Fold this protein.
Amino acid sequence: MRFKYYLIFTIVLTFYKTDAQTRPKGLEEKVQQLTDLTAKKSIISLNYNRFKDYVKAPPRDYSFIVMFTAMAPSRRCAICQHVYDEFLVVANSFRFSQMYNNKLFFGMVDFDEGSDIFQMLRLNTAPVIMHFPAKGKPKPADSMDFERAGIHAEAIAKWIQDRTDVQIRVFRPPNYSGAVALAMLFTLVAGFLYLRRNNLEFLYNKQMWAGAALMFCFTMVSGQMWNQIRGPPFYHRSKNGPVYINGGSHGQFVLESYIVAALNCAVVVGMIAMIEAAGGVKNPDLVRSQVDGKKRRFQSVVGLILVCVFFSLLLSVFRAKTQGYPYSFLFK
């Protein structure tokens, strides 16, 4: 008889546990669980069940910022790691700020762990940052446009503020690499000048300063300052292979700036070659031999080829980035 009671009690308890697992979570329970997960890690890792329970299923009075990415090395997504680092800066800034509350949570879905979520949302690219509002479904503006806004943490925080009215002040961990590199450079320059203190005539070398000025111009014109401010990826790897030139006029890759600097350098070298072939800037009246004339003629031809070829490549890059330019017919 006692065995029968134990059997009935076990069946009832098993049914209760099964029913409790299939029962939808209450709002307070969901918020408490999300708060506990955020206390462990600023970005909550979401699988299909978590995404369905916390992001899609009601009741919900909080917003969710979810990053869809592919972090596995086999996926060869070079930009994914960079965007994740910036996304993590924003999530940590919100978690450890005075503005922290349980009305906003951050999550991440990796393709290898949540491919069914990608299929459900019809996502065929990564990375993607989406805002899931507390009420209603996401709108087109709830997907962040990296090409227009950028991928740095400040841009992500500004986009989140526009979608949720939650202001996040970005706090980056201190990075002393720049200060250390500057100190080392200053030490090397000071040591070199000290060793050459008895022979500083090279400081009056006009060609050296002219070359340094040209290198500075190439660096600035190619967009290196924009790279330091925005922090773009080195290049983008797509399904069709690596992409070195950003297709929009509001962004660029680091490798793209190197390419533009090299093209500008080749054009300038060609112009200098033609000027020197004509006698230099001052054009001195010199008696030239027949051999000297052939050399200058060859130099002028080489300079002309450099200018024509590499300036045409510059125009091609400009056309690829600014397809709607009014004078695009000139480059056809």
